[in-house]
Every structure is written in C-alpha cells, then in structure tokens.
Write a structure and sequence with these properties.
Helices cover about 35% and strands about 25% of the residues. The chain contains 11 helices and 15 strands. Helix 3 (about 95-105) crosses helix 4 (about 110-120).
C-alpha cells in the first residue's frame, strides 16, 4: 500500500537531549498503525511534529506524498484529524454546541458534523453538557471533532486512556471501522493487548529510535520463543542441555533462543542419551513478551 505518512531522518532535540533520532516512519494507507514505546521514548513528540505542534530539529515529513513545509502545511493539515493528550470541548456547552463550533470554525456543512457524530455513535447524548459526559463519551466527542473535516488521516495519542473495558472495546471497534472505510489511523497506546487486536502495522520506539516497523507477523518472526521439552526425567535432561542455557520448568526443560535446527540437534542428543521425550513445543508469546524483549524490558 502507498504510504500516507513518511519521515526521513526526523530528529528533535531539546538542548543536548535527543528525544527523537533519525526516525524513518512509513505509515501505509488505510491501516491502523500502532505506535508503541516505553514512556519517554518519543511517541508523543513524534505525533506533535507530524501535526506541526512541535518543530523538528532536522529531517523531513511527507504527508500523502507531499513534503510538510510552510507553503503546504495548511492544506495538508486540513486532511488530518487528531486527538492529542486530553479530549477537546467546552464543558459548559452541550455536545451539539461543541460540534457547531467545529462546523463553523472549519466552514463545514452540518451534515458533515452529524456524520462524524453518528460514526462515533454519540447522537443520543448531543444535548447533554460535556462536563456531564463520561471520559469515554468525551473521547468519542473528541474523535468526532477530528472526523468532522472528513480527514484521510487520523492521529490519536492514547485514545483509550482511562476508559473502562466497554469504552476501550467501543474505541477499538471505531478504529477498525474507520480503517475499513479507508481512513489511515495512527494510534499510540500503552495497552498492548488492544493494539495487538486493532493494529495491522506496528512501529516500536525505544529512546527516540525506531526498533521495529512492520506487520505483527514480521515482528513475531524476529523473535524466537523458548523451546519446552517434556520428559519423564527433567533432572537428567537439564544436566545434558546445560550448555544450551536450559532451565527447569515443572516437568519440562526450557531452552531459550533455539531455532528449529538447534532444537532438532538438542532433541537428537537427548534421544542418544536415552532420555524419554514426550513432547517438544514452542512457548506461546504475546505482543507484550515480544515488546519487552525488543525494548530490553523497559515496559510502557
């Protein structure tokens, strides 16, 4: 798929501290791009640079194939919707009044604003004051405001932050529907399980640098799960496989980082030593397991 957002050597420094270093983003059209990284890795700064809220120290940003420059910024930003940090909206006004303000500010037709409201399924609550909204409803209103201009790209920073499971499920379904309708969604989140269920492409940052970018399948292919060998004599199997870094795991022996060829060699070695083997399997891995391995256990 053609890229909707690319960056080349994107940098941001504050004094001598590099927050983003030589970042090359590639966000394909019509995908949900999950943007992950430990706290302080540069995710929010990167998103703000894409939206011209923070000026890069160096590098280039291209949106829909065009460079983001002073002469093109207004037009390109008109095709991007965003929700960064806290949801927008005036609490003393109703949801409908907030949407009217967006409509007038952007010069939109009323139907555009109402279509955005229907997309986030907020129409039943439009006449309530926003200060009486739940956090999930405020998030949905913020996304409706971002969608009102019918953007081709939607950039969301932690859109499920503070939501209950029902609210998270609702936002997840919304992002999937938007991508199915052709909107390119870039979303950061500390909820790896949600990103794993939503994103079709992943970008993982660490200390301001891109550690991985690609599909979930490509990410998991880079990681080698532990091998578990089930045996009736785990003590002896452990002694015989010590040179491969084995460790006990109940009635099994755990061997880290072995590819298929090395695993076959270890199994043959145990069979020659007359160790009974009942099963050989790969440990299951979650996105969190792979993420922690990739980021050196920094967490989110």
């Amino acid at each position: 798929m053609p890229p909707m957002i690319t960056t080349h050597g994107l940098n941001k420094k504050y004094g001598n501290r590099a927050v983003v270093e030589n970042l090359d983003l590639h966000v394909p059209e019509g995908c949900v791009y999950g943007f992950l990284g430990p706290n302080g890795s540069g995710k929010s700064t990167t998103m703000k640079m894409l939206l011209s809220l923070v000026r890069p120290t160096g590098g280039e940003i291209h949106v829909m194939g065009r460079p983001m420059r002073r002469s093109t910024r207004r037009e390109l930003l008109g095709r991007i919707g965003s929700l960064i940090e806290t949801p927008p909206g005036y609490g003393h006004l109703t949801g409908r009044e907030n949407m009217r303000l967006v409509q007038r500010l952007l010069g939109l037709a009323e139907e555009q604003a109402m279509r955005a409201v229907r997309t986030v399924r907020l129409q039943a609550h439009l006449d309530r004051r926003v200060r009486d909204y739940s956090l999930g409803m405020k998030q949905r209103l913020g996304i409706a405001m971002a969608l009102a201009r019918e953007p081709r790209i939607l950039i969301l920073d932690e859109p499920t932050n503070g939501l209950d499971p029902a609210g998270i499920d609702e936002i997840r379904g919304l992002l999937t529907r938007l991508a199915d309708d052709g909107v390119t969604v870039m979303v950061s989140s500390h909820l790896l399980g949600e990103i794993d269920r939503t994103a079709t492409v992943l970008g993982i940052l660490g200390n301001g640098r891109m550690l991985f970018q690609g599909t979930r399948e490509q990410l998991f292919a880079r990681s080698t799960p532990d091998v578990l060998i089930d045996t009736t004599d785990p003590g002896r199997a452990l002694d015989l496989t010590a040179r491969w870094g084995s460790a006990p795991d109940g009635t099994a022996v755990r061997l880290p980082g072995l590819d298929d060829g090395a695993t076959a060699h270890v199994v043959s070695h145990l069979v020659r030593e007359h160790v009974d083997i009942h099963g050989v399997r790969r440990d299951t891995q979650s996105l969190e397991d792979v993420f922690m391995d990739l980021t050196g256990g920094q967490g989110l």
